[in-house]
Sequence to fold (564 residues):
Amino acid sequence: MMGWVIFGITLIAAAGWIGWRINARRHLSTAAERTRRELTTRTNELFSFQELSYALFESLEQDAIAQPAVQYLTRFLNADGALLALTLDEESPLRIVAAEGTLELLREKEFSREGAGLITVAMRQKHVEIAHTEGMDRPELVSGVPVEVAAVVPLRTHGTTFGVLAAVRDTAVPFSSEELKQITTVATHASNAIENSRLFELVKTGKEQWEATVDALANGMAVLDGEGRIRRANRALAEMVDQSIPEVMGTQLCGTLFAGSAALEEHFACARRHEACQPITVRSPLKGRTLRISAAGMPGTGDGWLVVQIEDVTERDALEAQLIQQEKMAAVGQLVSGVAHELNNPLSSISGLAEFLLQHEGPIEAKSKHLKLIHEQAERAGRIVRNLLAFARRGPAEADYLDLNEIVRQTTQLIDYELKLREIKLETDLASELPTVLGDRHELQQVVLNLLTNAIQAVDGNQAEEPRTVRLVTMEDDGSTVLVVSDTGPGVPADLSSQIFTPFFTTKSQDQGTGLGLSISYRIVTSHGGQLELSETGPDGATFQLRLPARSAAELLERNSPGS
Ligand code: ADP
Fold:
């Protein structure tokens, strides 16, 4: 009996164990199935996310980015509708650029950022808005568009909110936390892609504006690489060489415009060393134009790259030359009365002595003494006339090695009579050795004459007890040749000192001044690479300083070369 009982118990236990095993196995297979399904869902999600990423970053058009984002929400999140809205800037309204499913009708609609609805709230609050129907109250996505369930995520990068991504359901099934995570992830991807496209647009617009601005400039502009080849050029530059922009690309600027130029190469080398280089004026023999060129190194680009500005100064130079000539003729007019008087003395000596010789038949020694005097006086008269003609001469600028002392001497001869007539004392202290200067004799003579005339006019207004002295000093200073012209006149008032070099600025009456002397002198001196300044002024007089540099042989060649 006992045996049967044990057998029975064993049988029941075995049956229980087998049942448990079967149950456990069934349970396990359901769990595996769930895991497998979960895995498939995740893999699908991963693939669809990957696809979405490709779609988002494939285009730089905002609308083309927005569309795949909303499609993803309707397809993979069981959303009945989705939309993406953007603002252009802080002020502009929200524009719905993409909408799918039940929200499709809202596409292209615009909404005020201040209006009611989950979208504008999410924009303002800058956090995710989740809402669903409570009792009779249906939340509104935008004013007048009620929904059952909604999730709205702001689109933002670098602290700026520029739109929203929204998903809605028409059934009362709220989005799970997993689904909300996915919406947020899609929003983050879309934000980055849209920000990329905005930055691209910004750079593109900036580039277009830069090109339009540079093209609108009347001056030629070019970017040169380290070998002097044109890498960028504006329209004005292309027009200067009668070619199109693509045609000038890659050509040598020096060759295209000048058939090579030593002075220009030297200027470019100076700019490549990032030094402050004076613009240079060079005549283009190929184009028959006078061009003023200034180059500067371009930091942040390749080795030795330059940005070059080219101004066509042909007409301006011609106009200036005309002004210089006008001013010269005005000075000649002023000088003529003095010179006529000056010539009167030697000429009356000549005629008097000649008459004397004709009437008297004396010994040959007495005659030769008088003949010598006649010769001397005739020479002097001839010199005065030659000086006057040389000064009045009109012609292109010529470069030569010059002695400034000689120019000073020649010029003072012209005003000798003026000084005597006005009882003005001229003191000169000319250096025995001066570095030769490179320049145009007549132009420099005009500068000295302008400075002297101003000094004479200044002291001429002095009271009887005040000194009437004009002083001329030449010296060498630091390799440069310097001329100092000072006077004992009233000086230049401090508030006028910044204006005296401006064309047509004058404090003199119409018959005394044109206001061009100093501005023309300044132009002449700077074109010689020198400086002209009012170095001192006060109630005891004014001092002007003219400084001319030692010039290289290359520049002499450049100025004298044919066509330049
Ligand atoms: P202008 O002599 O025809 O007036 P400038 O250009 O030579 O023209 O000179 C401009 C102005 O500068 C003069 O009108 C005068 O006011 C001032 N100026 C020039 N030189 C002197 C000087 N040596 N002393 C005082 N003022 C001067």
